[in-house]
Specification:
With 91 residues, the chain is α+β, with helices and mostly antiparallel strands. The chain has one domain. The chain is built from three helices and two strands; from the N terminus they run H-H-H-E-E. A two-stranded antiparallel ribbon has the order 1-2. A hairpin with a 2-residue loop joins strand 1 and strand 2.
Length: 91
């Protein structure tokens, strides 16, 4: 796959990126992985970049999902509800 890096290194860099997006707490994910794995300071920059990238992609996906969907009708375009379902009926 990648001759310069080990698979463990990719897992150490990718896991805080996943945690940061799923928990919506990037700093907590970074600190948890560094404390649990006891990696050195040489992993901080790749982990930080991966966390920043995952949070950016997550925010972009949220913005795209919140846009109204346009459908073509005989009178032109009309806006309909967003694609994301609401959880208000569960209350």
């Amino acid at each position: 796959m990648w001759p310069a890096g080990s698979l463990a290194g990719f897992a150490i860099v990718g896991s805080p990126a996943f945690l940061a997006s799923s928990m919506k707490m990037p700093l907590t994910a970074l600190v948890l992985i560094v404390e649990f794995t006891r990696v050195g300071h040489d992993f901080l920059i790749p982990i930080s970049l991966a966390v920043a990238g995952s949070i950016s992609v997550f925010q972009l996906c949220v913005q795209i999902a919140a846009r109204p969907v346009k459908t073509s009708a005989s009178a032109g375009f009309r806006a309909v509800k967003p694609a994301m379902p609401s959880l208000e009926h569960l209350d």
